[in-house]
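(Structure overview)
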Amino acid sequence: MFSRIVSCYDLLNRVLSFGCDRLWRARLAKAARPGSTGRILDLAAGTLDVALALRARYPDIIVPAVDFCLPMLHKGCSKLLRNNQERILPIAGDATCLPLSDASVDSLTMAFGIRNIRNRHAAFAEMLRVLAPGGLACILEFGSSRERIWGGMYNFYLACLIPGLGKLISGDNGAYGYLARTIRDFPTAADLEEELRNAGFARTRFERIFSGIVCLHIAEKARY
């Protein structure tokens, strides 16, 4: 499905978020913390916008950028050429079985990807494995429509406007209906925080952005 919408993916991110996706990704990059490994992992890297935001904020780091959808990474590689970004390393891979060594990254980021992973427990276990002690998992995700946000306007936008706008611009009948469904079915921010704690993260917290339309989760691996 993601392969079908590669050509208009970035445009739709801008349009459907009213341009706020760039601000959200910059905030995600700011939450990450570089350290002794010199690497920050970006999961569900897509067309590499978060990887570029990480490099802009931390010029000395290396960013392994992992995504399951190879055409998305191919699209992002054109941005790397334009920006001379040799320290971003696109990798086709599965977040539940990462091709990285234990304790090999200082932090990791994931923007709008965790809701697409059915086995979140396996993904969280892999995050803990590849993070160095004290490392941070920084996860940006849409708020669940199980919560009433902006008097229900958010739910209306998800259910009625996103599928229609997505179909109009992309020409794809199903992709943006899928987006709305995954947001609707996703756990609340408090429930996701509990999942992270149950997975073994030592400390967890989350920040609501735009009244909870987007939530930034930060989970820390124990230092010992």
